[in-house]
Specification:
It contains 3 helices and 6 strands; from the N terminus they run H-E-E-E-E-H-E-E-H. The protein has 103 residues and is of the alpha+beta class. Strands 1-2-3-4-6-5 form a 6-stranded antiparallel beta sheet, covered by helices on one side.
Length: 103
């Protein structure tokens, strides 16, 4: 089941104070970019974030799941908790590079 565009827009509203937000449809689901960095994956109306070492303390009690077949386990982000969302993005945004355009 693909994510609803309304849910993706809600995700973007929840994190809009963390930087420049945009989303892009990818493989039938969505990637949310913060400052041009792919940080949040929206699949089946759930928000996934890669497991980074810096998130262990913050998200140790969070639900985990696999966003799509063949993916590694991710944290499932409680998108309704703006404070947690902001903390997560502030921790991982400096670690994730801006993707380079393919030549």
């Amino acid at each position: 089941m693909a994510s609803d565009i309304e849910f993706v827009q809600y995700v973007c509203e929840q994190v809009n104070e963390t930087g420049r937000i945009r989303y892009r449809k990818m493989f039938g689901e969505y990637m949310v970019y913060v400052n041009d960095k792919p940080l949040l994956l929206v699949c089946n109306n759930s928000v996934y974030v890669k497991k980074h070492e810096c998130l262990v303390g913050l998200l140790k009690e969070s639900e985990k799941g696999i966003p799509y077949k063949g993916a590694k386990e991710h944290y499932i982000l409680d998108i309704d908790d703006k404070e947690i969302c902001s903390d997560v993005i502030n921790l991982i945004e400096p670690l994730v590079p801006v993707p380079q355009a393919k030549k």
